[in-house]
Amino acid sequence: MTHPSDTGNTGLLERKAHALALPDALSMAADDRNLPADVRALLARARDALAVTRAEADAAGLRYHALFDAVPDPVSILDADGIVLDLNRAGEQAYGRPRADIVGQPIEVLNPDLPRDHLAPVWDAVHRGRTYVIEVTNMRGDGSRFPVEVHTAGFEHAGRPCLVAVARDLSERREAEVRYRELMDVMDRGIAIHDVAGRFVYGNPAALRLLGIRQGTSLGDTSNLGEWVAIGPDGNEMPWAELPPVRALRDGRIVESTLVGLYHRMRRELYWLTVTAVPQYPPGGDRPHQVLSLFSDVSALKRDSAMFDRVQALAHIGGWELDCGTDRLYLTAEAVHILDPAHPPATMEALIGLLLLPDRTRLRDALGAAMLDATGFDIELQGMRSDGGTFWVRAIGGPRQGDPATSRLTGTLQDIARDKHDEAILRAQARTDPLTGLLNRDAILCELETRMADPARAGVAVLYIDLDRFKFVNDALGHAAGDELLIAAAHRIGQAVGSSGSIARFGGDEFLVVCDAGAGASHAERVASAILDAFGDGFRFDTEEFSITASIGIARAPDDGDRPQTLIQNADAAMYESKRRIRNGWQLFTPALAQTQQDRLRVETHLRRAIDNDEFHLVYQPQVDLRSRRVIAAEALIRWRNRQLGEMRPDHFIDHAESTGDIVRIGAWVLREACRQTAAWRDAGLGVVRVAVNVSYRQFLGDELAAHVHDVLAEFALPGSALELEFTERVLIEDAPDTLRTFAALRDMGVQLSIDDFGEGYSGLNYLRRLPIHGLKLSQLFVGGVPGDRSDVAVCQAVAGIARSLGLGLVAEGIESEAQRRFLLDLGVTVGQGFLFAPGLSPDEFSRRLHGGPGPPV
Question: Where is the PAS domain (predicted)?
Fold first, then answer.
């Protein structure tokens, strides 16, 4: 890069070369021994001074070049005729041309659109000591144009007038101006500019829309001030001198959000606006020449605020203000209505006197903190009116805005009595079982935990109560009757326990009582006996009466558990043992029961995998003609042999399977295995033997029982008459259309249908007539007592009479003596089974019995 004085002048270059060579000549002369010593010394000083001067000149040149290239905008140095003497690095980049292509060329190389005498006004401004500013279009090396703002100033170098021109690229500013105009057009806030005479200079579309000015209307048409009336927030007319734009122009300061109403006389329209006015100054001016107003339409909010007082009353919210110096209390009408309409408190101390004692301290503390620390508060308070009525309020307050001395506190009072009432209801509901009104599971667990954690209390006992045969009634009469039974049971338990314990419905038909354990003759045991006595009478529904009893397990803390969950689990284990052993009784928890519970879980775990592990097998008990002892059918009985548990009788695992739901899968396996064996006997030439299979009530509830039976019979090519399905009495009450359709479908296949253990459960003849069944099975529970037990004899006679009257077959179970066989024959029962004839036989043993015909029991 070359300094302007180095360009276009050969003489200057020669002088520069001479100047560069001069130090060398002086150095040689200073070393010449032929010259006098004083001359050599003088020449040496001249040489050194010249070297310093040259170094300073080189440093100045470097600084010039560094500063010249550091300027971010293009900078050109021109001579008096407009020839470019120098160009900085930013200029090379902006114009896209090397410096060598521009230096020495007229300025028109950068701006071909300049007029012929374009330097005249420039020099005119320079001679007057001013900078000349102009917006022009410059050209890049590729011919593209871009707008620039050029600032030109003059300076003199080596006696020559020169110009320095700085060009600022306006492309981004122009784009920003476009974006700004677009933003103004899409903003939803109005923007208007007025001059000092109040005339519209600019209004964006939102301003025109908010003021009701149609598109295309001249802004000048809206400037007739006589058509507008200004209205202040209080509803009175506002002088034009107080309008925000006028004040901003007058005071030269921003006027922030001010509510103004503008009423147009001709259109009879009122606009409520929030206006912020910003004064704008011209360049170099000390007084605003126009004002920019930003405004939003708040007509809807203003309209809503007119209803605020009414809303306060509807929302039960009142206002208050306290003069801290005099204790004078100011209340709105709604606040008076909330606190005490008859005797409204005139001071804060009088209001505090209305509150309950704990809340008086809370309010005093809150007021003190608000006055001393300028903090706000939000508290709930309860008090009593002069007429004895109570109130609940939410008090919100704090220092009044703009009051640094905190001389006044202000706030609101909200009537929350209804909310508190609702909260109390919700709290009660959260702790209460909605059906029985007793405590719910969560509430009793919380109470038990609290009592066990209290060292001052004596031992705590838990009574776990389960209703015997509840599921049967619920299934028999429907859920509505089941709910009635639970309500009645809860009432009886409540009467038996009284105030000596807490009662909860723990889930389903299970209840929990938490009481003191007592000592010696345990209080808990006496409570359990009282509950059992309360279930001594039957429960009546319509014309039917049911005997519902209870099984109770008792566990005491800390001996039977030091945590609520452990105590409940152990009481549950004791209840299960009571139900298993005696029913309608209570059982204390013992460590042995814990082992029983573990055994139960172990059985259920193995039972779930028994089918997959091929652990089940069937035995077949013959059904015989009681006269000839000839085998006429068989009942399939399931047996379970587990490698760890050993041989398990059905009464040891069927209940488990029923409770866990595994009985459905097990029942499906039994049905298929019995049909497979029947087909095997047929294929062995023994004929088709009818096999009876027990069907669980859970299987019956499934939607696919008939379809499943059909598929199994088809798989083994068996007729329906080869299969008999035995149901419990629970199906008698299922007279729903789906139930009847299932029975009808099974009967249409030829499948025999019978009711097992008839007489033990809900023996409703009304239901019995509606079901398309073939026969009944007389329970061994009654057969075992004949002919000696008169009650059993009477039951057997009744069941036999029912079967005859309805035309149903009858099979007697559990025949173990010749006297029983003869009694049943005399009663008209011709088919039976039991150990008198044979126990359950393996398939091979049963086939041998078929070959052997009548004979003594195996």
Answer: 60-113, 176-222
**Under a CB-based contact definition with an 8 Å cutoff, are residues 140 and 129 in contact?**
no
DSSP 622-640: EEEETTT--EEEEEEEEEE
Cα(825)–Cα(633) distance, rounded to whole angstroms? 18
Nearest 5°: the CA angle 499, 504, 506 is 160
- Convert the pLDDT of each residue in 690-744 to its tens digit: 999 999 877 876 668 899 999 999 999 999 999 999 987 766 655 556 777 888 8
Which phi and psi (to 5°) does residue 486 adopt?
A: -65, -40
Task: Return the axis-axis angle of helices 737-748 and 705-715, rounded to nearest 10°.
Answer: 20
Name the superfamily (CATH) of residues 5-172: PAS domain (3.30.450.20)
Q: How many other CB atoms are there within 10 angstroms of residue 145's CB atom?
A: 13
Structure tokens at 651: 């009464």
Per-residue tokens: 318: 């009142």
Q: Are 129 and 122 in contact (CB under 8 A)?
A: no
Cβ-count burial 100-134 (b if 16+ within 10 Å, e if not):
eebbeeebebbbeebeeeebeebeebbeeeeebee
CB–CB of 829/812 below 8 Å?
Answer: yes
| Residue ranges of domains in the chain | 5-172, 185-215+226-305, 308-422, 433-605, 616-852
Q: How confident is the model at residue 764 (pLDDT cuts 50, 70, 90)?
A: low
Which structure tokens are listed for 516? Answer: 């003191």
Fold of 433-605: Alpha-Beta Plaits (3.30.70)
What residues have CB less than 8 Å from 331, skipping those under 6 apart? Answer: 318, 319, 320, 339, 344, 345
pLDDT in tens, 129-138: 888 888 888 8
Please indicate whether the domains covering 185-215+226-305 and 308-422 agree at the CATH topology level.
yes
**DSSP letters along 531-557, please?**
HHHHTSS-EEETTEEE---EEEEEEEE
- Rounded to whole angstroms, the Cα distance separating 600 from 336 reads 69
**pLDDT tens digit string along 740-756?**
788 889 999 999 999 88
Cα–Cα distance between 792 and 784 in angstroms, integer? 8
CATH architecture under which domain 185-215+226-305 falls: 2-Layer Sandwich (3.30)
Helices (H), 478-522: 479-497
Q: Give 616-852's CATH code, choosing from 3.40.50.300, 3.40.50.720, 3.20.20.450, 3.20.20.140.
A: 3.20.20.450
* β-strand partners of 809: 775
> Following DSSP, what letter does each residue of 120-148 receive, concatenated?
HHHHHHHHTT--EEEEEEEE-TTS-EEEE
What is the DSSP-derived secondary structure letter of residue 688?
A: -
Give the Cα separation of 727 and 729 in Å (integer): 7
Of 112, 175, 166, whose CA–CA distance to 141 is shortest?
Answer: 112
Q: Give the list of residues 6+ apart from residue 604 with CB closer than 8 angstroms, or none.
A: 656, 660, 662
| C-alpha to C-alpha distance for 501 and 511, rounded to whole angstroms | 13
Between the CA of residue 820 and those of 785, 787, 833, what are the distances in Å?
9, 6, 11
- Are the C-beta atoms of residues 273 and 244 closer than 8 Å to each other? no
For residues 620, 626, 627, 632, the Cα torsion angle rounded to the nearest 10 degrees is -30
To the question of pTM greater than 0.85 for the whole model, the response is no
Distance set, CA 99 to CA 8, 13, 61 (Å):
15, 20, 18
